[in-house]
Design brief:
Length: 325
Amino acid sequence: MSDKIDRDDVSGTETTGHEWDGIKELDTPLPRWWLYIFYASIVAAVIYWVLMPAWPLANGYTRGLLNWSDRRIVAAEVHALEASRAPMFNRLAQASTADLARDPELQEFARAAGESAFGDNCQTCHGAGGAGSTGYPVLADDVWLWGGSLDEIEHTIRVGIRSGHPDARISQMPAFGRDHMLTVDQIGNVTEYVISMSAARERLQADARVAALGAQIYQEQCAVCHGATGAGDRVVGAPSLLDDVWLYGGSREEIRRQIDLGRNGVMPTWERRFDDGTIRALAYYVHQMGGGEPDVVAPAPAQTAAPAPGIDQGQGSGAGADATP
């Protein structure tokens, strides 16, 4: 073996002795600045291993001399944030509807907190801004199955719909076709009658002759929930059939499929997940989306005034406010 050092003829740099097809590999030394950074990185890594959590163990990991924990820090920050917001959430939970209407600061807090909770928990189904989708109702319009007042919306959020909660909203649309309650022809007839009574009759060109055949079937099978005129009933959660708003689609085929299959969706109960303040904030945010209804206001007690001298006391008339829950 030769001890002669092989140098490149052009650069004068030593070679490694490797050669391929006449090409020699140069043994160029690394730049000193690069070596210094490399050694400093090794030292920094050793210091990190000692001070910070680094090495996995059989049942945990090395804690490090600083006992640093990102999870503990985040938990502390979340706890501090919750503590800072707690007074406003308590005010919101204890405020009546009238109190909330008179307090702009509380309204702004409820709107912001409700928007955050909605985006994290409700938007997946109901869509951004409450736009809804097939099987999930629009929350930004003025069509409400169980009531659109702040109290009614809050109750629905609290107990859910067919959620298993003891006080859940419950309604049941029968599967008239699947369960053989009506024949195929009867379902077609009542479908046409439902279209003829709705605001979709012009859009779908309702067949008056077929609709007439379905009128009697509707009165026998559907009117008990949806009403003789199709106006619906919020007490039992039966939607109005007079508008052109359809949860599962407004085509003739989708309306027929709903009568045939009787699809019934589920909304979870949020009572066990959210505190009262968060539920109220969510209800307020949904109520403010555009379709919220006013809460029922109890009429003021009548005050009886003594009749003026010389005037006969006749029969007075009282005034009250009608409101739809």
